[in-house]
Design brief:
The chain has about 450 residues and is an alpha+beta fold. The protein has twelve helices and 25 strands. The strands form eight sheets. Strands 3-11-12-18-15-14-13 form a seven-stranded mixed beta sheet, sandwiched between helices. A five-stranded mixed beta sheet has the order 22-21-23-24-25, with helices on both faces. α2 crosses α9. The protein starts with a helix and ends with a helix. The chain binds glycyl-adenosine-5'-phosphate. Glycyl-adenosine-5'-phosphate (GAP) binds next to β12, β15, β18 and α9.
């Protein structure tokens, strides 16, 4: 069967990710581990750029948000109070013919008869609740008293530390706590590359406010988050704010949006923006017996704040960035013949490597020395890459394929051998337009930092 253009595009993306060191299968030499992925030298840079930028926008550039970094293991009581132990489940069905297990919403429905998506069998068990949390034991004994779970979201530590953070930060409502960290879910069918994984990272904000302002802040954060995606290179036209209808929302939520992106495998959720009311703090106050109230010094009232939560997936956003950036166009090879060029059009602020520096020829010592000098000049300000091997066109192509937005070439003009006026200047090549401009070396740092921030 012929693959659709979208499926072919996705295959090319997955293959590029492995070939160029963005993403590898975890434990690959042992056959992998389903739902777990490793980020290679370029993937880790992309991921860090995303997390650092999220932190900058959500924490550093605001007066009303502080950060924290909670532990992955928490007291089991947290998961009982939050409802995760009882209700963080997927309904599962087993196929008695091929023994495969599926989420019940993944069964095939043929004229009202449910069938196994694997073998087409109709001998299926009734749906059973399957908890998605990874269970583990704390300490030397493995019994009920030592059970806890790897956290399935980062959110809970921000709720249970609400009082501590409030006290030390001396913030007034509205204010938020932000966190980036690992989360684990024993997903039944991990799929679509890193999209649905068993180990992933989240970037979450819990924004505490007064009850009467909950909807206002929900609308505000939805818009802020959409702007964030635009500012990292995902155009608004590819983003969709899907309002979750009343009957599909968590019972405690007064409004939830999913921010979705058009992946090659379909429109899928990148982030949830949920108005969770006071549910979480109420639950923890009740279960712990400790007050999680806020004292309003002006009105002298005590109350449990409400919460608006923008919760984004790091890995899903990285995948969206790669899918959005992937492009093929044509560029001339060394002999001027047009060839297909693979290019990742990352926003410069997300690109793993910001600038590649090339001496025109590797066997001309003054060119090499000058290029290395430029690397040293730029290195304190950005991630740079030095490459002297192969024809210059090939070197450009290798950087295009990993999304490096700028290329600096040191040539004989730089040395002043052709025109003294061009001494100490280099060519600066733009990845997308492939145009080159001549710039003085002393202005290079300023020009580049202004374009990558
Ligand atoms: N605290 C709320 C919360 O965790 P969620 O919608 O379950 O809400 C938030 O998760 C985000 O975490 C999702 O929008 C997605 O980006 C990411 N995420 C959730 N499950 C994931 C998985 N299995 N693999 C990768 N990312 C996941």
């Amino acid at each position: 069967m012929n693959k659709s253009p979208d499926a072919q595009r996705m295959e090319k993306i997955v293959s590029l990710c492995k070939r160029r060191g963005f993403i590898f299968q975890s434990s690959e030499i042992y056959g992998g581990l389903n739902g777990a992925w490793d980020y290679g030298p370029l993937g880790v840079e992309l991921k860090r750029n995303l997390k650092n930028y999220w932190w900058r926008v959500m924490v550093h550039e605001r007066d009303d948000v502080v950060g924290m970094d909670g532990s992955i293991l928490m007291n089991r009581a947290v998961w009982k109070a939050s409802g995760h132990e009882d209700t963080f489940t997927d309904p599962m069905v087993d196929c008695r013919s091929c023994k495969a297990r599926f989420r019940s919403d993944q069964l095939i429905d043929k004229k009202g008869v449910k069938q196994c998506p694997n073998c087409g069998g109709k001998d299926l068990t009734v749906p059973r609740a399957f908890n998605l949390m990874f269970k583990t034991f704390v300490g030397a004994t493995e019994d009920e008293s030592s059970v806890t779970y790897l956290r399935p979201e980062t959110a809970q530590s921000m709720f249970v530390q609400f009082k501590n953070v409030l006290e030390v930060s001396r913030k007034k409502l509205p204010f938020g706590i932000a966190q980036i960290g690992k989360a684990f879910r024993n997903e039944i069918n991990p799929r679509n590359f890193t999209f649905r994984s068993r180990e992933f990272e989240q970037m979450e904000l819990e924004y505490f406010c007064r009850a009467e302002e909950g909807i206002k802040w929900l609308d505000y954060w939805l818009e802020e988050r959409l702007k964030f995606y635009e500012s990292i290179g995902i155009p608004r036209a590819r983003l969709h704010a899907h309002e979750i209808p009343d009957d599909e929302r968590a019972f405690y939520s007064k409004g939830t949006y999913d921010i979705e992106f058009d992946f090659p495998f379909g429109r899928q959720e990148l982030e949830g923006v949920a108005y969770r009311t006071d549910y979480d703090l109420q639950q923890h106050q009740k279960a712990s017996g400790k007050s999680l109230e806020y004292f309003d010094e002006e009105t002298k009232q005590r109350f449990i704040p409400h919460v608006v939560e923008p919760s984004a997936g790091v890995d899903r956003t990285v995948l969206a960035l790669i899918c959005e950036a992937y492009d093929e166009d044509t560029a001339p090879d060394e002999k001027g013949k047009l060839e297909t060029r693979i290019v990742l059009r990352f926003h410069p602020r997300m690109a793993p490597i910001k600038c590649a520096v090339f001496p025109l020829l590797k066997n001309k010592e003054p060119l090499v020395a000058k290029a290395k000098e430029i690397v040293d000049l730029l290195r304190p300000h950005m991630n740079v890459f030095y490459d002297e091997s192969g024809a210059i066109g090939r070197r450009y192509r290798r950087q295009d394929e990993i999304g490096t937005p700028f290329g600096v070439t040191v040539d004989f003009e730089t040395l002043g051998e052709k025109d003294p006026a061009l001494r100490e200047t280099v060519t600066l090549r733009d990845r997308d337009s492939m145009k080159q401009e001549r710039v003085p070396i002393k202005e290079l740092g300023g020009i580049l930092t202004s374009r990558i921030r």
